[in-house]
Design goal:
By secondary structure, the chain is α/β, with parallel strands linked by helices. The chain folds into three domains: about 190 residues, Serine Threonine Protein Phosphatase 5, Tetratricopeptide repeat (Alpha Horseshoe), CATH 1.25.40.10; about 120 residues, Response regulator (Rossmann fold); about 130 residues, 3-Layer(aba) Sandwich (Rossmann fold). Helices cover about 50% and strands about 15% of the residues. The chain is built from 21 helices and 14 strands. The radius of gyration is 26 Å and the shape is globular.
């Protein structure tokens, strides 16, 4: 259906270019911005060229920018369209919701209502989609809009996804009789074709479904948990054990949800020969839908190599190696470090609006990989990276590096300092250096910044600090509490970050398995759907790598979630 809408979308885009300024002025006082004008035009080109991810980033940034400018309202609409074309309906809804509030009298309200319905349709929330379309039909006299909405409503009614009581319930919120009568006429045409949705038998009402049950079919399947044996290395084995416990906890908390029964089968290996024999046996058993395992990059590389000859998905929960997804069917859930650098560069450019940056990072650590990639990708995006300064990990006096930074830039001329770290011990030295030279800019971090005690001790309250992190949990959520309860019943140890990685990985696989009806050959598509884990979102790129990081803000003594950043893997 969305393919058929592209002509309408393109025509709407041109209309927005022509009237965006006038329409925005009709909503509220705005500031004319040449930068917004140019960015909007470039984003529109990206949209027309099919680069919906890039377009959505720019339109989203323009929509949220303050003060409002001549392209604000148009950016909300084009951002939502871009998200829908890129198959991110939840993001489209998140962008449209404030639009309805901010621009109640906008001429784009009808288009926004149609897009909202399209997003609900992508989510398979058919009742909500019908409701949105019907409300849109009742509010517009524009025949072009009315024809577009009628087509959507007819398709919904003919799809068989709505029974009569659901249709009637959806129409209860429609504000006028004319629209309800028009939809009844459409329904009557279904009666003539003997295709009208059936009313559920009164004596055996269907149980009310949750919002996501429509995606699932009753099924049972097995998942192979394949982990290295480091019994001769206590520190490494402790991490393996934590991940395993998180994985097994996921099976226990998920069982029976969405009509699925998932069975774990745990294997361990010490040698390559043992691993090869295990994978051959697992791949030959069709009841296994996937392998979840590998902990460190080296053993994960062995696992990927062993599974390469077979068509079975391999999900890696914790490994960050850069070359693990060179083969199809591998899904790396812990964002690789160079990918993190790209993600943070895009966040700085698109979300923070940064044009000039500096980089401070430690040598001989994973943080260096992030810094190098940030610099390269930022320049590719069009940012000016004024200076890059390195320090030795563990240095407690970075005054020399900060004076070098200061001499390399004009006073207060950079928008952001990117400072990835490999240890929370570096936080104190970085903050001291900023104070020493009086550097005034936003700090964008990555790596090991998420240590609230260190932040409270060393970061001034006036400092703006944002950082990307692979780990942030809402400890008040029902899902987290359920996980914590089961985990603590099985372990005397404090809940670890490694267990969370294992838990999310298995839930991700089970969820895909349920959507695939327990069929291995259908898993690939489902493993590329966005998934909201306990510790972070999972958004798998075309290269098989997760590219999603939590963006956190530290202020007034606490760390809070700002949102999600996800880059386009290259």
């Amino acid at each position: 259906m969305l393919a058929a809408l592209r002509t309408l979308i393109y025509a709407g885009a041109i209309a927005l270019v022509i009237c965006g300024y006038t329409c925005a002025l009709a909503q509220d006082a705005v500031t004319y911005s040449e930068e917004a004008e140019e960015a909007f035009d470039l984003a529109l080109i990206s949209f027309e060229n099919g680069d919906f991810e890039k377009a959505s980033r720019v339109f989203s940034r323009l929509a949220k920018a303050t003060p409002m400018h001549q392209k604000t309202s148009a950016s909300y609409i084009m951002g939502a369209r871009s998200f829908l074309e890129d198959a991110y309906p939840k993001r489209a809804i998140d962008l449209l919701t404030p639009f309805f509030i901010k621009f109640p009298n906008s001429m784009y309200q009808i288009e926004a209502t149609i897009l909202y319905g399209d997003a609900q349709l992508q989510l398979e929330q058919y009742r909500e989609a019908l409701k949105s379309y019907a409300i849109g039909l009742s509010l517009t006299t524009n025949e072009k809009h009315r024809d577009a909405i009628r087509g959507r409503i007819r398709s919904l009614l003919f799809s068989g996804n709505l029974d009569t009581p659901t249709i009637e319930a959806a129409l209860e919120d429609v504000p006028d009789d004319r629209t309800r009568e028009e939809i009844e006429v459409m329904l009557s045409s279904l009666v003539k074709k003997n295709t009208r949705p059936k009313t559920k038998p009164a004596e055996t009402p269907e149980p009310k479904k949750s919002q996501v049950v429509e995606d699932f079919t009753a099924s049972s399947f097995k998942i192979a948990i394949v982990l290295p044996d480091f019994s001769g290395d206590a520190a490494r084995q402790a991490i393996v054990d934590d991940v395993r416990l998180g994985m097994l906890t996921a099976f226990e908390t998920y069982q029976g949800k969405n009509q699925c029964i998932a069975e774990p089968v745990v294997y361990t290996f010490e040698t390559e020969d043992t691993l090869n024999a295990l994978i051959e046996a697992i791949a030959g058993d069709d009841t296994f839908i996937a392998i979840a395992g590998g902990i460190f990059s080296n053993d994960s590389k062995q696992l990927v190599k062993a599974a390469q000859p077979y068509s079975i998905p391999v999900v890696l929960p914790t490994a960050t190696g850069e070359e693990l997804t060179v083969h199809d069917g591998v899904y790396q859930l812990n964002v690789p470090f160079r990918e993190r650098g790209r993600v943070m560069a895009e966040y700085a450019f698109y979300e923070m609006g940064a044009q000039r940056a500096a980089v401070l990072a430690p040598l001989e650590s994973f943080a260096r990989l992030m810094a190098e990639e940030f610099k390269a990708h930022a320049r590719k995006l069009g940012m000016s990276v004024e200076i890059v300064t390195w320090y030795t990990p563990g240095d407690d006096d970075l005054s020399r590096q900060f004076f070098s930074l200061r001499s390399g830039i004009y006073t207060d001329s950079i928008d952001v300092l990117f400072a990835p770290i490999a240890s929370p011990a570096d936080i104190a030295a970085i903050m001291d250096g900023i104070e020493t030279v009086g550097l005034r800019c936003k700090i964008l971090g990555a790596g090991d910044w998420n240590y609230p005690d260190s932040l409270r001790t060393h970061v001034p309250s006036r400092q703006v600090l944002l950082f990307g992190s692979e780990l942030y949990c809402d400890t008040t959520s029902e899902a987290y509490r359920a996980f914590e309860k089961v985990y603590e019943s099985k372990s005397a140890q404090e809940l670890s970050r490694h267990a969370l990685f294992g838990y999310d990985a298995v839930n991700f696989v089970i969820d895909a398995g349920c959507r695939s009806q327990g069929q291995r050959n259908l898993m690939s598509r489902q493993l590329r759907k966005e998934y909201r884990g306990l510790r972070a979102p999972i958004i798998v790129s075309g290269e098989g790598r997760n590219s999603a990081l939590n963006i956190l803000r530290y202020t007034n003594g606490r760390v809070s979630l700002v949102g999600t950043a996800s880059g386009k893997a290259q």
